[in-house]
Design goal:
alpha/beta, Chitobiase, domain 2, TIM Barrel, 5 domains, eight-stranded parallel beta barrel, 26% helix, 29% strand, binds acetamide
Length: 761
C-alpha cells in the first residue's frame, strides 16, 4: 500500500514537472496550465499550493453556495480519500460571495502559496471556478496531496448560450450516459443540453395523456439506419446496436426505448446542480412520424408516410392537432423548468398541405398565400401557447421561410444558406450558431481544426447586430451512431474546441496553444471513461494572406500536429528533406506551385499538399457582376474572385463563389495592361449538383464599352463524371492589352457552378 501511495505522489508531482519539462524552455508560463476553455485572464507566477487533507475549506453558509461546496467536497473525497476540513487547517481554500464580480457565471480564482480564494456573485461562477480548479488536479484518485500552481484567474464567458445537443430519437441513449454527458459539459463550462426527444424514428418522452406515444412510438423493427449500422459493425464494433435498447415484441426484434417523466425530472435536477439547462425539443410540424404512426388523424391525409423528401407533417389546419400539441407541450413544460423549449420547425414536407383541400380552403379563408406562410401560422400558434406558459421558443432556421416573430430564438444550421444569420438578426431574432459545417459532430467531415477555427458568419453579417448572437452549439445526430462508445468518439475532444470558442474571448483563442493544452484534458477524459477519438491528421491546411502594398502573397500552414516538421517547394516538385524548411509564413511574388508535406524520420507523410499561388494583375481590382452570385454562396462577396485566396476542396469553405445562372463578370484592371495569361478554376461534384460550365469566353476592352472576344475555352469532362474534379480554364493572352476583362461561363447543367479564382497576368 505504502509503495502504491509513493507512486501516486510521485506521479502527480511529475504531472506538473512533466508539463514544465515540456514547456518551460519555449512556452510562456500560462501555457503550462491546461484549462479548457482558456480563462479570459490568467497569470501564472512561480510557486505552488499544496492541497491535502490538512487544507481547510472556508465558506459562509449565508453565501448560499452549498450546492457547489457539496459538489467539490465529493470530488475531493475521491481524490484525497476524505473531504476538506471545515474547522481548521494548515492552509485554506476560501469560497466567498463577491457582488463586485459582474455576471452570474464570472469568477475570480487566486491561488497563493498558503491560500486559494474563489469568488463569484452567484453559484454558477463558483461552480465554474471549481471546474477550472478541477482541471488543474491530476485525474488519478487516491492522491496524498495535490500541488497547484500559484496563479490568478479572472474569467467570464463570451456567450450566454454554450450548448451541445444529442439526438436520442434515431438511436437511444441511457440515462447514465446522459448524466455523464452533463458532467462533461459542465466540466468544460457548457451550460445547455438540447435533447432532440422526438423524430420520425422514435418518440422518447413519456406523455401521460398519450401513453401510446411511447408504448408504440418508442419502438420500431430495425429500420434502414439500423441496417447501415449493422453492416458497418462488421468492420467496427462501435456500430453495433446497443443490446440495452433491443427487445422482442411479438416474436420480432425491436429497437427503442424512452425516458419516463420521473427519469427526466431526475436528469433535470442532476443537470441543475451542474448549472446545465436541459432544453427539450419536440420537433414539429415535420419529423413527427413516430406520433403520426400512432395517431394518423394528425396528418392532413390521415397517413404516416414519406413525401418527396421528408415525412408527412402534422396538419396545421386541424384543431385536433393543436389540442394534441398543447397537451404534449403542457406535460413537457412541467417536466422541464427550462426557460427554453425547442419546437423544431425544420424540414417540413409541405407538399401534403398543398394537396390537402382542407389546407387550401383554410388558406383561402384566412388570406394565407402559400404553405410557407401556413407553417408560420402553425409556429405562431404554438409559440403563443408556450409564451403564455412563460417559455421562450427555439426553432431551426427553416422556420424563417414564411416569416417569424422576432421573439423566437433561431438556430442557424443550414450553412449552405449563407444569408440566414444576416436575415435572423435583421428580423430582430436572437441567433444561436449551430452551422452543420463544422458544428454537426456527427459528420465524418467535422474536423477539430474547423470546429476551433472556421468562420461561422459571412462577410456581410451586420457587425452592429453581433449582440443578437446568443451563442454557439454543436449537434450530434445519431442516425448512424448507435452506441455510447461511438457517440463518445464523435463528441470528444470536439466538444472542448466548441467550449473554448463559446467561452473564451476570441482575442485569446489560439489553435497552437489549444493543441498544447489538449493532452492533459485527454487524460481527464480517459479517467472519466470517455472513449474519445483524437485524430491527428498529417494534412496541411494552407492559408494565404495578400499583401497589396508589397504585391505578394504570404503563405502559411496549420496542422493538427504539435510542432510538425514541414518541407516545401515552390516549383511543383515533391519536397524532400533538402527542400525549404517551413519556419512560418513565406511570401510569393508572381506565381508559385507550392508542394508541401509533414515529414517524419526524413520521409514526407501523406497527404501531400499542392497549391497554386499567384500574385496577378487582377488582385484587389474591382469586379462588376452582370449576373449575381447565388446568395447562399457569396464567398467574400464582390472581391472573392480576385482576392488571391484560392478555394480548397470544399465549395463551402468561404472562398468558392457559387452561381446558379451564368457567370458574367467584368474585371477592371484600373489601367490598360499588357496581358499574357488568363485562367479560371471551377469545380465539379455531381452528387450535390455542382457542375463545370459548358464553356467559357473571355473578352477584353480598353474603354469598357467595346469588347473583343479573345478566348473560347472548352473542356472534355463529362457532366456524369463522379468524384471531386477541378478544371482550370486557361489560355494565353500574349500580345493583348486591355483594362477590362469580361468573363462569361455558361451554366449548361442548370446546377451550381463554383469558381475561384480568376487569374489575369
Ligand atoms: C436539422 O439538421 N434538420 C436541424
Amino acid at each position: 500500500m505504502a509503495f502504491h501511495i509513493r507512486i501516486f505522489v510521485l506521479k502527480h508531482v511529475l504531472y506538473f514537472v512533466g508539463i514544465c519539462l515540456l514547456f518551460s524552455c519555449s512556452q510562456p508560463a500560462t501555457e503550462q496550465i491546461s484549462i479548457i476553455p482558456a480563462p479570459a485572464h490568467l497569470n501564472v507566477s512561480g510557486g505552488e499550493f499544496v492541497l491535502d487533507s490538512k487544507t481547510q475549506l472556508i465558506f459562509s453558509e449565508a453565501d448560499g453556495f452549498q450546492n457547489e461546496i457539496d459538489f467539490f467536497q465529493l470530488y475531493i473525497s475521491e481524490k484525497l480519500g476524505k473531504e476538506l476540513s471545515i474547522i481548521d487547517g494548515r492552509n485554506s481554500l476560501e469560497i466567498l460571495k463577491s457582488n463586485e464580480i459582474e455576471g452570474e457565471e464570472s469568477y475570480s480564482l487566486i491561488i497563493q502559496e498558503h491560500k486559494i480564494t474563489l469568488k463569484a456573485s452567484h453559484g454558477k461562477g463558483i461552480f465554474y471556478g471549481l471546474m477550472s480548479l478541477k482541471q488543474l488536479i491530476p485525474p488519478s484518485n487516491s492522491l496524498e496531496e495535490i500541488r497547484l500552481p500559484v496563479l490568478e484567474i479572472s474569467d467570464q464567458p463570451t456567450y450566454e448560450w454554450r450548448g451541445m445537443h444529442l439526438d436520442v430519437s434515431r438511436h437511444f441513449f441511457s440515462m447514465d450516459y446522459l448524466k455523464r454527458y452533463v458532467d462533461l459539459l459542465a466540466l468544460y463550462k457548457l451550460n445547455k443540453l438540447h435533447l432532440h426527444l422526438t423524430d420520425d424514428q422514435g418518440w422518447r418522452i413519456e406523455i401521460k395523456k398519450y401513453p401510446q406515444l411511447t408504448e408504440q412510438g418508442a419502438w420500431r423493427t430495425f429500420n434502414d439506419q439500423d441496417s447501415i449500422c449493422i453492416d458497418k459493425s462488421i468492420e467496427d464494433p462501435r456500430f453495433a446496436l446497443d443490446p440495452k435498447h433491443i427487445k422482442v415484441i411479438d416474436d420480432r426484434l425491436h429497437y427503442g426505448g424512452y425516458y419516463t417523466q420521473e427519469e427526466l425530472k431526475d436528469l433535470v435536477a442532476f443537470a441543475g446542480t451542474r448549472h446545465v439547462e436541459i432544453i427539450p425539443e419536440i420537433d414539429m410540424p415535420g419529423h413527427m412520424m413516430a406520433a403520426i404512426s400512432v395517431f394518423p388523424e394528425l396528418a392532413c391525409n390521415g397517413e404516416a408516410a414519406w413525401g418527396e423528401v421528408f415525412s408527412t407533417p402534422l396538419c396545421p389546419v386541424n384543431e385536433e392537432v393543436y389540442t394534441f400539441v398543447e397537451n404534449v407541450l403542457t406535460e413537457v413544460s412541467e417536466i422541464f423548468p427550462s426557460k427554453y423549449i425547442h419546437i423544431g420547425a425544420d424540414e417540413v414536407e409541405k407538399s401534403t398541405w398543398e394537396e390537402s383541400s382542407e389546407c387550401n380552403e383554410f388558406m383561402r379563408e384566412n388570406g394565407i398565400e402559400d404553405v410557407d406562410l401556413l407553417q408560420s401560422y402553425f409556429v405562431e400558434r404554438v409559440t403563443t401557447f408556450l409564451q403564455d406558459k412563460g417559455k421562450e421558443v427555439v426553432v431551426w432556421d427553416d422556420a424563417l421561410a414564411g416569416g417569424i416573430d422576432a421573439s423566437l430564438n433561431v438556430m442557424y444550421w443550414r450553412n449552405w444558406v449563407a444569408e440566414v444569420p444576416d436575415k435572423v438578426v435583421k428580423n430582430g431574432n436572437d441567433l444561436i450558431l449551430t452551422p452543420g459545417d463544422p458544428f454537426y459532430f456527427s459528420s465524418p467531415n467535422s474536423k477539430l481544426f474547423d470546429i476551433y477555427n472556421k468562420k461561422l458568419l459571412g462577410a456581410k453579417f451586420p457587425e452592429e447586430l453581433s449582440y443578437k448572437i446568443k451563442g454557439l452549439q454543436a449537434c450530434l445526430w445519431t442516425e448512424t451512431i448507435p452506441s455510447e462508445e461511438l457517440a463518445d468518439a464523435m463528441l470528444f475532444p470536439n466538444v472542448l474546441a466548441l467550449a473554448e470558442r463559446a467561452w473564451s474571448p476570441s482575442s485569446i483563442q489560439d489553435w497552437d496553444a489549444f493543441k498544447r493544452r489538449l493532452p492533459s484534458q485527454l487524460d481527464i477524459l480517459e479517467s472519466m471513461g470517455v472513449k474519445y477519438e483524437y485524430k491527428q491528421s498529417n494534412a496541411l491546411i494552407p492559408f494565404m494572406n495578400v499583401d497589396l502594398e508589397n504585391k505578394r502573397i504570404g503563405v502559411s500552414f496549420e496542422t493538427d500536429l504539435n510542432d510538425p516538421i514541414i518541407y516545401y517547394t515552390t516549383d511543383g516538385t515533391i519536397p524532400t528533406s533538402a527542400a525549404n524548411l517551413y519556419q512560418g509564413e513565406f511570401f510569393v511574388n508572381g506565381s508559385a506551385s507550392i508542394v508541401a508535406a509533414v515529414f517524419e524520420d526524413g520521409e514526407a507523410k501523406e497527404p501531400i499538399l499542392k497549391k497554386q499561388v499567384d500574385y496577378h494583375l487582377a488582385i484587389g481590382k474591382p469586379v462588376v457582376y452582370n449576373k449575381a452570385w447565388n446568395p447562399s454562396y457569396p464567398a467574400g462577396d464582390a472581391g472573392s474572385l480576385t482576392n488571391g485566396l484560392r478555394g480548397g476542396d470544399s465549395y463551402n469553405d468561404g472562398f468558392w463563389q457559387g452561381f446558379t445562372n451564368d457567370l458574367d463578370v467584368i474585371v477592371d484592371l484600373e489601367e490598360v495592361n499588357d496581358l499574357s495569361y488568363f485562367s479560371a478554376n471551377f469545380m465539379q461534384l455531381i452528387g450535390p449538383g455542382v457542375f463545370l460550365p459548358g464553356s467559357l469566353e473571355v473578352s477584353i476592352s480598353e474603354d469598357g464599352k467595346t469588347f473583343e472576344k479573345v478566348l473560347t475555352l472548352n473542356h472534355t469532362i463529362s457532366s456524369e463524371e463522379e468524384g471531386l474534379i477541378f478544371h482550370n480554364f486557361e489560355g494565353s493572352l500574349e500580345g493583348k492589352s486591355a483594362r477590362f476583362v469580361q468573363v462569361n461561363a455558361k451554366n449548361t447543367q442548370s446546377g451550381f457552378m463554383f469558381v475561384d479564382e480568376l487569374v489575369i497576368k
